[in-house]
Amino acid sequence: MSRIVIPDDEPAVMAPSAAFATLAGHEVRTYADRPSSVAELVRRIRDAEMVINIRSTSKFTADVLAACPHLRLISIWGTGTDNVDLLAAKSRGVRVTNTPGVSAVAVAEHTLALIMAVAKQIVTVDRQVRDGKWPRAMVPQLRGKVLGLIGTGAIGREVAKLGRAIGMRVVAWTFHPGGDTAEWIGFDDVFRQSDVVSIHVRQSTDTSGLIRREHFDMMKPGAIFINTARGPIVNEADLIAALATNRIAGAGLDVFDLEPLPPGSPLYSLPNVVLTPHAAGITPETTEAGLALAIDNVFAFLAGRPMNVVV
Questions:
Q1: Is residue 47 located within the same domain as residue 182?
Q2: How many distinct structural domains can be found in the chain?
Q3: For residue 2, is pLDDT > 70?
Q4: Residue, of 80 and 182, whose pLDDT is higher
Q5: Residues 29, 109, 278, 288: which is the catalytic one?
Q6: Residue 259 is among the residues annotated as catalytic for this protein
Q7: Is residue 310 part of a domain?
Q8: 195-220 residue pLDDT tens
Q9: Which is the catalytic residue, given 143, 230, 247, 305?
Q10: In degrees rounded to 5, what are phi and psi of residue 158?
Q11: Which domain holds residue 98?
Q12: CB contact burial 244-259 (16+ within 10 A = b; e otherwise)
């Protein structure tokens, strides 16, 4: 029986990491490609007691969990848990852990980069200069503008700090407001008041489809929308419509309904959108720290120590 299985290390991050060396002496099986099907994922983890999950493309559904009777722990590298049926895991006594907080600074920095790129029209102006033009874009300055946050977890709090650092007024809505992270206002008021709306809630049954046409209709015509959380939190078709009709000024997106972004997506042709490939949290520093924490969750489970438990 393989006690620990890493079924999806592609592109390889775990195998070449310094953290991986701490697993020496433990029975570990690592796969350097992603499972090609549900059946292949089951084949890889059927006899495992613990799984370290690298890629969200591995879906731990109720059927997958039922086919793996020895499984006791799924240790996720990252914060997102939308690839695991948490209710099914709980009912089968499978603990699920993640690595919260390690990418907060990286994602916050990326969020600020997207805000700057969209507000200053960096991509469009760069393209025009390369084409021999010398544009004089009348772009806004951000000091004095309102940054609105939906969600103030570890990442949202870091974004709030950066927003204040460049002179923005920070307002926010979150499920459990408290402290001085931001000026707390209503959910709809974030969209009505903000010059920049940035999303930082976790994807769940409560947040899937949370943001839709009615919220884009509330936004100022010159406002921009940023999403570095999860694509399905936003109705993508409604966002595309708001951008295509210039109902809002622009968007910076690191996450999408389908990833990789399909070749036929209308987002490619919209000039007021900056796109990045779900890479906000990928830095050498966060990668190493997150992998180390995913492994430590396994060791904590074996030793009966506290873990970063989701269920």
A1: no
A2: 2
A3: no
A4: 182
A5: 278
A6: yes
A7: no
A8: 999 999 998 889 999 999 999 999 99
A9: 230
A10: -70, -40
A11: 4-102+283-303
A12: eeebbbbbbbbbbbee
Token output for 228: 């570095």
| Active-site choice (10, 40, 109, 259) | 259
Report how far Cα 54 is from the mean position of its chain's Cα atoms. Answer: 14
- Asked if 182 and 271 sit in the same domain, the reply is yes
CB atoms within 10 A of CB 41: 24
Query: What per-residue string of b and e applies to 270-293 under the rule 16 or more CB within 10 Å gives b?
Result: bebbbbeebebbebeebbebbbbb
Long-range contacts of 286-291 (CB under 8 A, 24+ apart): 286/102, 286/103, 286/105, 286/106, 287/13, 287/17, 288/17, 288/18, 288/19, 289/99, 289/102, 290/77, 290/78, 290/99, 290/102, 290/103, 291/13, 291/14, 291/17, 291/19, 291/20, 291/77
pTM of the model: 0.89
Long-range contacts of 182-188 (CB under 8 A, 24+ apart): 182/149, 182/152, 187/150, 188/215, 188/218
Instruction: Note whether 298 and 73 are within 8 A (CB).
Output: yes
Q: Amino acid identity of 174?
A: T
Catalytic-residue membership of 278: yes
Q: Please classify residue 38 by burial: count the beta carbons closer than 10 Å to its beta carbon, then call 0-12 exposed, 13-18 middle and 19+ buried.
A: middle
For residue 9, which of 43, 44, 42, 38 has the smallest C-alpha distance? 44
Residue 207 lies in a domain: yes
pLDDT mean over 276-285: 94
Note whether 115 and 245 are same-domain residues: yes
Length of the chain: 311
Same domain flag for 158 and 263: yes
